[in-house]
């Protein structure tokens, strides 16, 4: 971890070296300032270039050091001020990334030259912080308030070509970035530096700035639901209008301290590192992510071009993997082709915006559409994405056994069916694995990789590596009904139904959980997913419809409480958005604007009267507690069953697949934060009052952890002890 210095002509080239991303750790910062001060004093040096080792400029402050004391004696602000005030020209040579403190360092240089492939940005907001080394003060002075605010509040990684247009960069080159920076440094020798010192410049005035900022605050409140960092970012940028530079930087410090006291940065940083940890999978048999090499996937196929299949084809093509897309007849193939082509056209537009049009074939893998399964004989990996029907899936896997080449991997995109049962009909169960994509599959980041009993380590490694190639966060889970995410959703939605029965209306429940921070409340989510999906499954399980036990009480099944509300809605043709009616009404079938429906209120009121249920209108806190604690309790059971290997895995699944607010870290991190004894006692109270709701009976592991005072989440794994692992 050091900065090194060499001389090229009369230019000192200082290289940041702290693998893997040259994060600005305390020791790197110390070394930078030493090399920089030496270079500025050295009379043989006329100019200075700052660059990063291993093709990366710098990914910012070392996040691992946040919260630790005694590392602030060489602050990044001090380095930046020293660089900016240097009398010799300083040029940043940006390769790979210049993010967070990395871009702030570059902004304090007098010039910036970047490689065309590089990305710049101030993504601190994504880890619950604001840029606090002058970034909120220098960037608006360079590119104006609107463009700076957009970058800072969204934490966007901006491609070099766009950064050049915005005025962040002075030059973009295809190769030899450091040489180009040295050339730039020599070219500007002798030119005045005053107007290159961003901290000394005024910020450009914009008309109606107050209205503009108020709108930004309103938008951020709506979009980020309870996350404080986006609001603090706006506050920090606003300061450029009325505070001199140094006061603005001091304000950054105050805002950072105040953010830290909310606990949100800690939660988001936990989420950041958890996403990286889940890639480092292990299995009880000794399989490990860095010991088992994945097989390269050069070609892939997707069977079924419904909503999921279309997204998966697009995702593979985006990753430049040639895909064969299969449907069962010409009509459905044609519909699928049109839908996929529309999605791919949008991807091309995005690539154009990123200046990547020069990549051969636009950087997208080719897609061949066919109805002939025989075309799959030479592909490396096949993803079946037909609808959730075990018999249909088995029929396809039987056929694939004889068609696919012997070493091809067979994946099933199921949201909860038994992967072992599907694998059992093939001649290669060791090469069968579940790949549970989330809709829309070309956008959603989560991939649950479901390991069957016979799935080989190579198959796991290959599926996990494919997830990474597709830009997803892949989490290895065990095989049980509904896996992790959907299994936990069961008790959560059960509570939603009970709250509706007891007297809450859909919009009240959604409001409470959206206030909690969920991207979408559960009733809107059910409407979006389609209420008929659960209804069919309940019919198959014999809980409702013609298979239901004759004479069963309406609100009980097998001695447990049961809510028939969603069944009744489906029986009256209300399947959600697709039919224009569900828990809400929509402007048309397929419409997206949810409006409270008087019909639903009337239906719920009548239902309560029929079943003589006294109305209990739960407040937001009760709604949040019951739904969240039901979800968390099932999370503990998932851990007990070793379906997920740790709480981080569950949190990553919920943050990336279910719209859980990242500023709360994830459901299990939230539980640790609330305090496990409190979660336990709330569940115990509910359970005592409602013995017919077994999902709320506190999980054994929750009791065990609460009994030792609720240790920090990092220690939970050691408490898991010997479980019969499904991983
Ligand atoms: C006064 C305060 C001043 C400044 C504030 C800041 O600068 S806050 C930090 C702002 N920067 C960021 O938020 C960037 C975070 N990193 C990323 O977005 C990605 O890691 C990156 C750089 C785009 C690289 O992505 P890639 O997919 O290539 O790799 P991966 O994410 O797996 O990261 C590789 C390993 O590097 C570790 N790491 C990344 N960034 C940091 C960081 N800033 N500090 C510490 N460590 C970092 C990451 O955890 C990975 O570690 P590993 O042990 O290999 O899992």
Automatic annotation (TrEMBL):
Annotated metabolic or biological route of this protein: Lipid metabolism; fatty acid beta-oxidation
Subcellular location: Peroxisome
Domain 3-hydroxyacyl-CoA dehydrogenase C-terminal: 483-586, 624-708
Location (main, coarse): other
Catalysed reaction, written as an equation: a 4-saturated-(3S)-3-hydroxyacyl-CoA = a (3E)-enoyl-CoA + H2O; (3S)-hydroxyhexadecanoyl-CoA + NAD(+) = 3-oxohexadecanoyl-CoA + NADH + H(+); (3S)-hydroxyhexanoyl-CoA = (2E)-hexenoyl-CoA + H2O; (3S)-hydroxyhexadecanoyl-CoA = (2E)-hexadecenoyl-CoA + H2O
Gene Ontology biological-process entries: fatty acid beta-oxidation
Keywords assigned by UniProt, alphabetized: Fatty acid metabolism, Isomerase, Lipid metabolism, Lyase, Multifunctional enzyme, NAD, Oxidoreductase, Peroxisome
Occurrences of domain 3-hydroxyacyl-CoA dehydrogenase NAD binding (ranges): 300-479
EC number: 1.1.1.35, 4.2.1.17, 5.3.3.8
Signal sequence range: none
GO cellular component, one term: peroxisome
InterPro entries recorded: 3-OHacyl-CoA_DH_NAD-bd, 3HC_DH_C, 6-PGluconate_DH-like_C_sf, ClpP/crotonase-like_dom_sf, Enoyl-CoA_hyd/isom_CS, Enoyl-CoA_hydra/iso, NAD(P)-bd_dom_sf
Gene Ontology MF term list: (3S)-3-hydroxyacyl-CoA dehydrogenase (NAD+) activity; delta(3)-delta(2)-enoyl-CoA isomerase activity; enoyl-CoA hydratase activity; NAD+ binding
UniProt subunit comment: Monomer.
Family label: Belongs to the enoyl-CoA hydratase/isomerase family. In the C-terminal section; belongs to the 3-hydroxyacyl-CoA dehydrogenase family.
Protein name: Peroxisomal bifunctional enzyme
Species of provenance: Leptobrachium leishanense (Leishan spiny toad)
Taxonomic path: Eukaryota, Metazoa, Chordata, Craniata, Vertebrata
């Amino acid at each position: 971890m050091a900065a090194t210095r060499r001389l090229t002509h009369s230019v000192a080239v200082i290289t940041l070296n702290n693998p893997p991303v040259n994060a600005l750790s305390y020791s790197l910062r110390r070394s930078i300032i030493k090399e920089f001060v030496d270079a500025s004093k050295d009379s043989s040096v006329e100019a200075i270039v700052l660059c990063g080792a291993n093709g990366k400029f710098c990914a910012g402050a070392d996040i691992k050091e946040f919260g630790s004391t005694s590392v602030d004696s060489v602050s990044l602000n001090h380095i930046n001020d020293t660089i900016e005030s240097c009398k010799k020209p300083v040029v940043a040579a940006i390769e790979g990334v210049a993010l967070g403190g990395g871009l702030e360092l570059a902004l304090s240089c007098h010039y910036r030259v970047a490689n065309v492939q590089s990305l710049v940005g101030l993504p601190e907001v994504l880890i619950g912080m604001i840029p606090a080394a002058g970034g909120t003060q220098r960037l608006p002075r360079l590119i104006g308030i609107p463009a700076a605010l957009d970058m800072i509040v969204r934490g966007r990684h901006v491609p070099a070509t766009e950064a050049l247009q915005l005025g962040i960069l002075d030059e973009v080159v295809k190769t030899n970035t450091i040489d180009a920076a040295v050339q730039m440094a020599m070219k500007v020798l002798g030119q005045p530096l005053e107007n290159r010192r961003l901290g000394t410049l005024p910020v450009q005035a914009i008309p109606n700035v107050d209205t503009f900022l108020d709108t930004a605050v309103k938008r951020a409140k709506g979009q980020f639901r309870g996350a404080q960092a986006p609001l603090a970012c706006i506050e920090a940028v606003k300061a450029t209008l009325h505070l001199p530079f140094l006061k603005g930087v001091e304000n950054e410090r105050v805002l950072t301290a105040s953010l830290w006291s909310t606990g949100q940065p800690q939660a988001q940083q936990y989420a950041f590192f958890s996403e990286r940890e889940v890639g480092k999978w292990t299995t009880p048999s000794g399989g490990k992510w860095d010991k088992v090499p994945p097989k390269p996937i050069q070609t892939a196929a997707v069977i079924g071009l419904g909503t999921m299949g279309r997204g998966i084809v697009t995702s593979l093509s985006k990753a430049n993997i040639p895909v064969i897309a299969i449907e069962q007849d010409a009509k459905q193939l044609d519909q699928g082709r049109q839908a996929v082509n529309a999605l791919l056209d949008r991807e091309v537009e995005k690539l154009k915006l990123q200046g990547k049009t020069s990549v051969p074939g636009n950087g997208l893998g080719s897609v061949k559409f066919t109805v002939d399964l025989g075309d799959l004989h030479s592909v490396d990996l096949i993803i079946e994405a037909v609808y959730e029907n075990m018999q249909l899936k088995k029929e396809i896997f039987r056929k694939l056994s004889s068609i696919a080449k012997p070493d091809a991997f067979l994946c099933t995109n199921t949201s909860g069916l038994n992967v072992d049962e599907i694998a059992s009909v093939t001649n290669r169960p060791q090469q069968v694995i579940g790949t549970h994509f989330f809709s829309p599959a070309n956008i959603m980041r989560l991939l649950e990789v479901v390991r069957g009993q016979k799935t080989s380590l190579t198959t796991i490694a290959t599926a996990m590596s494919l997830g990474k190639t597709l830009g997803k966060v892949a989490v290895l889970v065990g095989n049980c009904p509904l896996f992790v995410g959907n299994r936990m959703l069961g008790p959560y939605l059960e509570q939603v139904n009970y709250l509706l029965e007891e007297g809450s209306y859909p919009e009240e429940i959604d409001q409470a959980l959206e206030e909690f921070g969920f991207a979408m409340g559960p009733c809107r989510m059910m409407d979006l997913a389609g209420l008929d999906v659960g209804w069919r499954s309940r019919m198959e399980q014999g809980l409702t419809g013609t298979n239901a036990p004759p004479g069963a009480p309406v609100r009980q099944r097998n001695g447990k409480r049961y809510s028939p509300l969603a069944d009744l809605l489906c029986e009256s043709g209300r399947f959600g958005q697709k039919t224009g009616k569900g828990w809400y009404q929509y402007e048309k079938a397929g419409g997206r604007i949810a409006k409270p429906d008087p019909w639903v209120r009337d239906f719920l009121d009548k239902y309560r009267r029929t079943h003589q249920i006294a109305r209990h209108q739960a407040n937001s806190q009760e709604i949040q507690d019951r739904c969240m604690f039901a979800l968390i309790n099932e999370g503990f059971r998932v851990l007990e069953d070793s379906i997920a290997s740790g709480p981080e895995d569950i949190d990553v699944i919920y943050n990336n697949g279910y719209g859980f607010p990242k500023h709360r870290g994830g459901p299990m991190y939230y539980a640790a934060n609330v305090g496990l004894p409190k979660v336990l006692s709330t569940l115990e109270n509910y359970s005592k009052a409602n013995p017919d709701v077994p999902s709320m009976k506190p999980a054994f592991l929750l009791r065990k952890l609460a009994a030792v005072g609720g240790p920090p989440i990092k220690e939970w794994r050691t408490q898991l002890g010997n479980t019969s692992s499904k991983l």
